[in-house]
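subagent[fold] <- orchestrator: predict structure for attached chain, return tokens only, no commentary.
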Amino acid sequence: MRRIWVLGVVCLSLVLVACGGGDSKKGSAAASPDGVKESFASLSGTKTNLVVAVGPGTRVRAYACDGDSTALWWTGDSANGSFSSTSTDGGATLNVKVGDKVEGTVKFKDGKTVDFSAKPVTGAQGLYSVDLASDGKMSGTSLGGNTFAGQFDFKGNTLAGEVTQPGGNKVKINASQSKTGGSTAPGAYLAVLDATGQAKGFQMRTAGKPADGFIAGWVMP
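subagent[fold] -> orchestrator:
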């Protein structure tokens, strides 16, 4: 299978991962080999998780998902430490100051604005690109350099696997599909994972159809 990060092209819907044990507090992730630094925030007053990835250079990519109906993708370049962009579906605005800290606001389509202060990713946290094969094997990587490998049970709608950080620390993943989810099919997906590996939802990478057709949400069993 071929895995490609597609800018401004994304998400159709998601498939799976969600959560697990492991020592999620070990080993804060350093920058990936290509210079990407990821930061994570849970948006106050919502069920949405956000990952902001900065680098290489001034490149910024960010993805927010709540595992139900919110799936937002932003991409572009920062200028003088600032980044502002409208999500690919045109529904939300992200304003960020990037530097030693990653702080900013998300303004949702309904006008609600949430301030956030994102911290460097730890544990399984990150923005992942993964592939699900017809035999249920799933694998992929986060922009910050974590790797994921697991086995999906199409009949039982469950997933078992683990995330490995660049330093070798592992986080076990055991996921089940949420009640709001639909069917899961082989394909290529994006996802935001929290420190223990819980996914707020995966979105299928679909060229020309950003944030279209949300299918499945996954949660810790």
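orchestrator: received. Logging for downstream: The chain has two domains: 37-120, 126-219. Residues 37-120 form one domain.
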